[in-house]
Amino acid sequence: MLTKFETKSNRVKGLSFHSKRPWIIASLHSGVIQLWDYSMGTLIDRFDEHDGPVRGVHFHKSQPLFVSGGDDYKIKVWNYKTRRCLFTLLGHLDYIRTVQFHDEHPWIVSASDDQTIRIWNWQSRTCISVLTGHNHYVMCASFHPKEDLVVSASLDQTVRVWDVGALRQKVVPADDILRLSQMNTDLFGGIDAVVKYVLEGHDRGVNWASFHPTLPLIVSGADDRQVKLWRMNDSKAWEVDTLRGHTNNVSCVMFHTKMDIIVSNSEDKSIRVWDATKRTGVQTFRREHDRFWILAVHPAMNLLAAGHDSGMIIFKLERERPAFSVSGDTLYYVKDRFLRLYEFSTQKDIQVVPLRKPGSVSLNQGPRTLSYSPTENAVLICSDVDGGSYELYVVPKDISLRSDYMQEAKRGAGGSAVFIARNRFAVLDRSTNQVLVKNLNNEIVKKSLLPIATDAIFYAGTGNVLCRAEDRVAIFDLQQRIAIGELQTPSVTYIVWSSDMESVALLSKHAIVVANKKLVLRCTMHETIRVKSGAWDDNGVFIYATLNHIKYCLSNGDSGIVRTLDEPIYITKISGSNIFCLDRDGKNRVISIDATEYIFKLSLMQKRYDHVMGMIRNSQLCGQAVIAYLQQKGFPEVALHFVKDEKTRFNLALESGNIQIAVASAKEIDDKDHWYRLGIEALRQGNTNIVEYAYQRTKNFERLSFLYLVTGNMEKLSKMLRIAEIKNDIMGQFHNALYLGDIQERVKILENAGHLPLAYVTAATHGLQEVADRLATELGDNVPSFPEGKTHSLLMPPAPLMCGGDWPLLRVMRGIFDNGSDMGKAGQEEEEEDAAGADWGDEELDIVDMEGVMQNGEILADLEDGEGNIENEEEGGWDLEDLELPADVDTPKAAGNSHQSLFVAPTPGVPVSQIWIQKSSLAGEHVAAGNFDTAMRLLSRQLAIKNFAPLKPLFMDIHMGSHTYLYALANASIISIAVEKGWSESASSNGRGPPALVFRFSQMDEKLKAAYRATTEGKFPDALRHFLNILHTIPIIVVDSRREVDEVKELIDIAREYVLGLKIELKRKEIKDNLVRQQELAAYFTNCKLQKIHMKLVLTSAMTICYKGGNCTTAATFARMLLESSPTEVQAKKARQLLQHCGDKKDVNQLNYDYRNPFVVCGATFVPIYHGQKDVSCPYCGARFVPTIEGHLCAVCELAVVGADASGLLCSPTQIR
After folding, report:
1. Would you give the DSSP letter of residue 136?
2. What is the pTM assigned to this prediction?
3. For 223, which of 318, 450, 546, 1192 is 20 to 30 Å away at the CA?
């Protein structure tokens, strides 16, 4: 049984598959109906209107409907699109056992404990027939898939077949008389349906009966624990055989739609599969505790579902994936017990040789994998026969000899076998975890132990095998017997190598891992729907198929959908835009795809911009996905060529700085917000003309005025003043007058606005005496006085020296995509464009220094002029006399060995510090090497450490301590020499040991003793500092053994408990005014796991504090705890006195403390988190916190982020091996 999906729920009593979608509906004993998507494994919906168990449920074949029947005597018809019940059919007088839609007619058949079967018309919502005849509960009723028959099973020990042909003519009654006769029919049964056969033979009540989809057969299951097979013809029906094997009541039994088998389930907690022709048991699947109640068979696919006491299970009986192997232009595959050959180029399909049938009758014995050796024309076929075995066929190369080929295949045990060379194949022996290498005579040539516990092997190049374990894969070289590479992956099901063997795709159920030939990870893809197959195309893109899509995956992790699928396929080869594949029936198919999208992304990734330009020019791509992709990858200027929508074009143009396109788009959109954004971008670029235009379009006069001010355009500022006057904008007038420096205008504006004092002050300050005198007479006694002893400064703008327009623009080289879609360019321009874009990596602006060019040009001109004059210059200059050599004597070239006498400096070796970090994942060793950034990244990944400030001095100490410094010569720099751990004179110079670290685990013992001593003496701040130092040192220490790793982890726990306790105690001492909180904190301190000596002191302190606070009951509790912990005589005496004094006195104050309920103390808020309450923990020290602290820095260790994901402490090389 191949389980595809499983649910956990209440008892499942009814099941039905959707005919087209990957859905199943399950009705539960609790009254809930669940709608599941079994391909995604998700619950889509639940319907909860029935009162009591729902025993029957069924999907309509073509309409968005399903019907349910329950113990509330109601039949409900639902629309799953609108998610509601459309109507309820009432008529049955007892529990309804099953309901079913007819495939063609608008009928529903229902079976009930009221001993009747009813047929309903769901369009007219009436009962059209009542089938009476059974004299006990009717357990099930169902329509024949093609004929007008109904089969029913009852606890009266019979199976009945009913002829309902007369119902075809039946219509809804029109008048009252007919309606009356209809009512009589409803009550007493009509003659529309007649019993055709009564099948008797079961000794107990029959629980289920169902028709064969095509043959005149019926199968039934009953409480007599038997499954019976019946045959019928036009006149009679008879028992064919009885299938015995179930040990309890048979709940349900059905024929498989595609295979010649019968499936039954029972209350004996088993599902049994029977051969329908041989009438023998094939296989049995059992559950531990759950009785089975119902079966459902998918109408079109090889799927079954079974409902049991605690949910349901969807499964296949046999694998449908054909075993195949691709070699060049040929595909070898297995179909119908024949090895077949398919040529991709000619699309010829040839039958090669027949295969041996498996001896056993159990399911899933067909070929699983196929491996092919093209040189020897040999085929290895692996299957699950006899617990895993292989067969070796050597196929004649001459086609004429194949027809009578009946050579006995060479066989052997082994679940996995693959060719690893021309005439050698490897077989996995799981019992000893070794690979047996065999020749074509099936003789063992070599044995090799594998590096990991392997459950399957795959081909990985000549002489190599890829070993699969549960959580990893490794490539093993069988010649050298070494592991070449290893990679952690989810459980891998299939391996696909690229044609050049440089890349490999590892396919799991829900993930694809792409790696190189040494298993170095390139990318990982996760899928919610099952991954079925895949192949590499000619461009190195991995194309894969899920249950309902063909998708692509690039090496950088980008992926997308190529096309959707109606049914699953198994991709065999990809050639151009054609995908060759096998379907589930083993037929070869060719599917055409449009590869433009992933070729475009691949070209962009590989920087093949000629291809990108070609695609842009042909405009084969469009859509939001491509635009978003280009934006995300930093190519908005490329995206511009695809976009027609003006708003998107505008956004992209702003992003890429293309102001001309942005202006054109803004004109089309003509929206205030877009003009405003254009103005901001144009101002950033210094394009003042466009800024001015944008502000004018939005009538943003304030910004316009300021723009004219900063550009010195006084003429336009004067115009702005006049506009403000026309608009009667007083504030605008004043601002513009201020920008212009026009004092008279400012005074006039203030006077007109009624601000005479301000107008007077302005006029007087700026020396306009006449105006000031006139305003003073108007003001009379209200003339404002000027402050004494202060000099006034005039509000006058500086006069602009020149009117500034657009900023000067830099000359830049034309980008490859500028005018990319303009095809009508001259050849010379295209050449310039190609030259400009030849090296895409130069994405910065190539700024041309015009001044430099000018100067150089002048220099060159001077030189050229000068050359002619050199001869004429008599005085000064260089003595450049002609050597007067013969014309035919060439200057000799330097000989090849002329440098041999020179000293060649040796190439520097790899620094020891670099060797230390090459294969190390230990943070301490990276710190010693001076690679603080990688050390911090490791600590962040392993322990989620974020605050590195406390670690800085430790980092410096380790780095300095792992090196010694040699002062060689006075003028030479100091030589740094790495200090290795365990160095000896005899050690090889090539092999380097790990660094010697100044912090060792043995030192931690001394620090711990000092911390304990300070705690005992009551020096809590000192003790806290010691314990925190231990916590801060541990992440960067390195130990040698597993035992020491355990000790380190134990030390973290000790330090955490003390740090938490000491912080609680220090907090308590800070609080002076809150007695209740003081008592609570003292109580929480007793919850920390401390040494006995300290625990006694803590209990004594808590006992005293609570007693003084009036909480006698709590104080007595601590006294009893103290007496149980072997106290000193003084402590014991004090505790007994307190107990005697407290007696039955109660607590005065209610404390948030319950010693009976186990709890931990939150390290930040110091409140108890009781057992069962949610909490989060620090990934390093393990301190616990209330959920609100998640994401904050741990208050205990002061290093890590609370609730963050981390892989765990790594402090020893033994943890890595």
Report:
1. S
2. 0.54
3. 318
Helix or strand (DSSP H, E) at 953: helix 952-961
What's the CA gap between 105 and 164, in Å, rounded?
12
Which residue shows structure tokens 């014309």? 887
Token pair, residue 577, equals 């835009």
Tokens in use for 298? 């998918």
Q: For tokens 């690979």, name the residue.
A: 435
Angle formed by the axes of helices 1001-1016 and 1042-1070, nearest 10°: 30
* Continuous H helices in 1143-1205: none
Q: What is the pLDDT of residues 663-721, one digit of tens each?
A: 888 888 888 888 888 888 888 888 888 888 888 888 888 888 888 888 888 888 888 88
Mean model confidence pLDDT for the chain: 82
pLDDT of residue 886: 42
- Residue 728 phi/psi, 5° resolution? 55, 40
Would residue 739 be called left, alpha or beta, if left means φ above 0 and alpha means ψ between -120 and 50 degrees? alpha
Angle at 872 between CA 866 and CA 873, to 5 degrees: 75
Q: Which two tokens mark 493?
A: 């099901």
**How far apart are the C-alpha atoms of 585 and 605, rounded to whole Å?**
39
pLDDT of residue 250: 94
Quote the CA–CA distance of 23 and 27 in Å, as a whole number: 13
* Lowest mean pLDDT segment, chosen from 346-355, 535-544, 638-647, 1037-1046: 638-647
* Residue 517 CA from chain centroid, whole number: 25
Highest mean pLDDT among 326-335, 397-406, 986-995: 326-335
CA-CA-CA-CA dihedral for 380, 384, 386, 387, to nearest 10: 120
Q: Indicate the burial class of 472 (C-beta count within 10 angstroms; 0-12, 13-18, 19 or more).
A: middle
Report helix, strand or coil for 537.
coil
SS3 1046: helix
Helix, strand, coil in percent for the chain, rounding step 5: 30, 30, 40
Amino acid in position 770: E
Assign 112 to helix, strand or coil: strand
Query: Measuring CA to CA, which residue among 164, 165, 181 is closest to residue 173?
Result: 181
Per-residue pLDDT tens over the stretch 516-575:
888 888 889 898 888 989 999 888 899 999 988 899 998 888 888 888 888 888 999 998
What is the rounded CA–CA span in Å between residue 705 and residue 724? 10
Strands 54-59, 42-47: pairing is unpaired
Any idea which residue has 């198929």 for tokens? 545
- Label residue 904 exposed, middle or buried (CB < 10 Å: 0-12, 13-18, 19+): exposed
Q: Reduced to 3 states, what is the DSSP secondary structure of residue 673?
A: helix
Which pLDDT value is given to residue 1030? Answer: 93
- Distances from the Cα of 906 to the Cα of 41, 670, 903, 909, angstroms: 63, 70, 9, 9
Q: How far apart are the first and last CA of the chain?
A: 38
Pick 753 or 659 by higher pLDDT.
753
Q: What are the pLDDT digits (tens) for 1026-1069? A: 999 999 999 999 988 888 888 999 999 999 999 999 999 999 98
Q: Left if phi > 0, otherwise alpha if psi is -120 to 50, otherwise beta: which for 939?
A: alpha
CB-facing half-sphere around the CA of 146: CA atoms within 13 A: 6
Structural tokens at position 1079: 């008592």
C-alpha 110: how far from chain center: 46
**pLDDT at 838 (0 to 100):** 33
Q: What is the residue whose two structure tokens read 């027939």?
A: 129
- Residue 196, CA distances (Å) to 107, 144, 178, 209 in order: 20, 13, 27, 15
Q: Is 121 helix (H, G, I), strand (E, B) or coil?
A: strand
247 contact partners, CB below 8 Å, separation of at least 6: 225, 266, 268, 270
Contact 1189, 1204 (CB under 8 A): no
Q: Are 262 and 227 in contact (CB under 8 A)?
A: yes
Query: Phi-psi region for residue 157, left (φ > 0), alpha (ψ -120 to 50) or beta?
Result: left
